[in-house]
Amino acid sequence: MTKVAKGKRKRAYRPKTTSGCSTCKVRRVKCDETQPSCLRCSSTGRTCDGYSSAQSSNSNRSREATLAIVQTLSHDAESCAQSRRSLAFFAQQTCQQLAGFFGSLFWERLVLQAAHREPALRYALVAIGSLHEQITLESDHPKTFALKQYSLAIKCLLTPLSQHGKRAVDVCLIASILFTCFEGMQGRHKEANSHIRSGSRLLQETVYDKGSELLHHPVLGSQSHSDCYVPVETLANFFAVMDQSVAPVSYAHSYAPNDLPKKKYKTGKSRLQPQGLCHVGQRRRERRDVFVVHQSWRG
Where do the domains of the chain lie, and which CATH numbers do they carry? Predict the structure, then answer.
């Protein structure tokens, strides 16, 4: 192991990038790549000279979904402005960091669309965006806003939609993934693991009825498989990768092997596993890599 001199902090490795606005490139500083003007320039009173056309095209993929979510935010002026900023940062920056692991479609489209209708997920995205922005800008300001949004997300998730309302299975699973990311970004691996295990338990408790195409959970109730924001089998892949238990994640008798699409799954002795993720060692490496990504944001 490489020894670090006492009193010196070794910076985490992160690959070099040619992206960023023209101003930050000339200054040779890290650009946060916020559109249309980066925050590093605007926060210091500099003029941001913008980005190349290719970069702008890639960064605009989530713009429509982001604008739709922004319209549903609180009418409180101060809160709304800060929420818009954090949400834009998530859509333009954070989801690109996360897309390498779970896929860009999930982060850049499906999650944003779900957050448009689900306040709990919206609060979680704002919290993650706010925290990531502070990490990127190496800000020493307290993470009060991010933590408040995170608390609101949890509170909102635990509050029934109505007196007899229930939370949908897929919303709770997506929330568990977002909460895992938020805790992992802070290096709080114990808390992140707790959310991973909660999601895994939720999957184990959920039963899919092939005849009615309904998902049944003893507490959350029933919902149509086709109404899910994100296919449950896609969410199951995430938890199968991230779960640290020695035995494979078992969806036995819940997601019956013949019920869900076969192209992503294989079966064996009443257990359901995503293809290519059967070995515990590989699963742990995937899980470790996610936490390494979270830590690399800290620089």
Answer: 19-60 (4.10.240), 62-159 (no CATH), 166-278+295-299 (no CATH)
